Each structure stands twice: as C-alpha cells, then as structure tokens.
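User: Structure with fe (ii) ion, tokens only please.
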Amino acid sequence: MTSPPAEAATRSLDAGDIEFGDGLEILLSTVFQSAEPGQTIDVATSSRATALELPGWARSTGHSAEQDWKETNQDGQRFIVRVRRGDVTPVLAPDLPARGDPMPLRLGTQFHTSDLISAAPERIPDSADPSYGLVPLGSIPEAGGPDYAWRLNRHDDLWAEDLTDLTERATSSQWDATSDIPWSEALDLPEEVEQAVAQVMTFIASNEYVALYVPAKFLPRVNAAFVDILMWLASHINDEARHVEVFTKRALIGGQRGYALASTQMSLHSLLEEDDFSSASLLLNVLGEGTFIDLLGFVSRNAPDAATAACARLAHRDEQRHVHFGISHVRRTQKLDPDSTSQLIGAVEARAAKLATLTGLSPVLLESLTILASGSARTAELRRGAAAVNELTKLMEVNRIRRLRAAGFDLETSHYLSELHTPNLM
Ligand SMILES: [Fe+2]
Ligand SMILES: [Fe+2]
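Assistant:
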C-alpha cells in the first residue's frame, strides 16, 4: 500500500467532548481503521485533558501524533491534534470483504438452518484441513491461531440428506422431562406391575446411555468446518440426555428399583467400541434405535399408566429422527462407495462375534415386559401380555429388515444382518 500525500489527504474528526473511557477509543479506532496508512487526521476535542492524552493513545496503537497539542491550532474552545495513521492492522487477516446480501428469511421472520448453510458467504467444504480452527461459518480466520488436529475431515463421511431439516425438527420438538409427563399418574400401580415397569425403564435407560455416548464420542473428532454435522450431533446428544433423564425418573418414581443387567452392559459396551462413524451409525441408528422405535411404540401402547406411556411416546418421536439420519447416511455411504458395504457388514459380524454368548433377550426383561403389557400378574391378563410381547418380537424383525433394505442392503443381506443383531435390542 502506498501512503497518500499527507496534506492533500488530511481528514477531520470532531470528537466533541467525548473522553477516553467514555468511548473515544472506539470512535478513534473506527475512523483510523478506515484510513490509509500514512494518512493524517485532525482530531478536534473540546477537552484539554483529551488533547493531552491523544499522543499517548496514538503511540500505543501504532499511530503517531504529528505535534504536541500545545502546538496545535486552538480553534475557539477546541484543541486539535494531528495524528498520522500507522501501518498497523488490528487483525492478522486480509481486509473484510465488502458487505454482501442479507441472509434469506422465510415468511419474513424465520431464519432456517438449511438457509444458513446454503446461503452463507462460504460453502461448507467437501474436505477440510485437519488443523482448521474454531472458525464460525463465513468468518475470516486471523493468522496465528493454534493448530487443531481433527480426525474426521471428509464431509461425505458424516453427512446425510435432510440433515439440517432433522436438526431443525429436533430444535422445534424439544420437550421437558420435568413437566411434560403426567408424573402423578405413575404413583398408584400394584407392586408387581410397578416392579415390572421399573425393570423395563431401567433397561431402556441403560440403552439410552449408549445412544448418548456414541454421538458424543464422535462430536469432538468432527472438523469445526462442518457446523451442520456438529449441530446435528449436538441435537442427538441433547435428545439422548433427556431420554436418560426421563426413563431414570420413571424407573424410580414409584419407589422400586430395577437391575442394570450384565447382558445389556455387554451389548452396549460392544457398541461403544465401534470406532468408524458409518459403522456406528448402522449399529446404533439403524439397528439399535430402529429396534427401539418398536419397543417404545409397544410401551406407549401397552403401558399401565399415562406417565409411562408419555415417556415412551415422546422418546419415540425423537428416535424417529435418529433412525431417519442413520438410514439416510448408510444408504448414501454405500452409494458413494460400494466397497463400504462389506465394511459395514463386517462391523455387524464383528460385534455379533463379541456377543456370541448372548442367546436371547434376558428372561428378567421378557418377564417384565409381559407384566407391563398385562397390567397385572393374573393368568388371563398374562396370556394377553405374552401374546403382545411375541407380536413385538416379530414386528421388530420385520421392521429391522425393512430399515436395512431402506439403508441400501439387498434382501438376503438384510435378513443376515437382522439375525446377527444383538438380542439385547440395542
Ligand atoms: Fe434415545
Ligand atoms: Fe436415539
């Protein structure tokens, strides 16, 4: 940049009676940033104290006062200090680009997340530098920041169609596990029924932990350039934290306690060990949460009280988004890379091998589900409850195969993967 001739380019700034500490620094900074290096600006002030301080301010900010205030013109009550702009920039970055178009609003008021992503002045990259900083979408990074070391740097490895719409839906579908459940309805169940409900709720809560930990494990590996993925994972984590909360509350509200079964722990531990994002999505979102959609539907239809039904119904609504993501992501992954299919199948096989000792759903849980659906431990009702549980098992199998087909697997593979799926359901 060349310095303009000082005399020709001298500008004036009337600072009035504003003083240092009252906003004068900000006024000066704004005016000097808009000037060219070398340009002079006559700063006029009605305050003698301010005129005295101006040369010091100029030195400390990389500019220079042309003369002491005593030598400046005194124009009536005003003191004028001529300051030359230094060749300094407050930020180690290129100049900000010119102001662009405003972002689009729907119905004149709503700023949708998908519009943020599609209309931002920068596009989310297909692949991002692993050292990329915590740089918000569209912002200009200053040089000199630390190097990060993200592990997930390819957008396609993480994305799904409808991702931003799913995130938007998650935000608008939030509910409150403290006040949106009719908790008092859960207080008067017979002892054997309450015990069964507490056991089923404990089982579900255990499973919700893994649904919380899996996306939480991947989130800090995702490159900060992929804000759409971060927002989605955060919404998933938020949903699951609420599921842990609501099912723990329901398990304990009646004074009963349930077992956290070792078979469940084994199954969930093997899911948490999966380190590939797409394989984890198949295991958790498609197979695990998919199967749980059927379980939650069963609980909401057969619960002996309105509070339990509401817990299951509200969680079911959230799970539909998680399963939608998984099916969409796994289908796209296989489409983009046909070799990924064998890797995905391998992940299900490897997990099944770890769980070879699990031969079926825990008898403790089967019994509790049956009593929950019967609403009592009497013979006639138990028969009905047992039939409902049998129906549930068949429904889970049919729907699991349907979801695997939707996720891009052929019919034979879908049957094979469904059979390999953990008997623990998640
Ligand atoms: Fe959940
Ligand atoms: Fe979920």
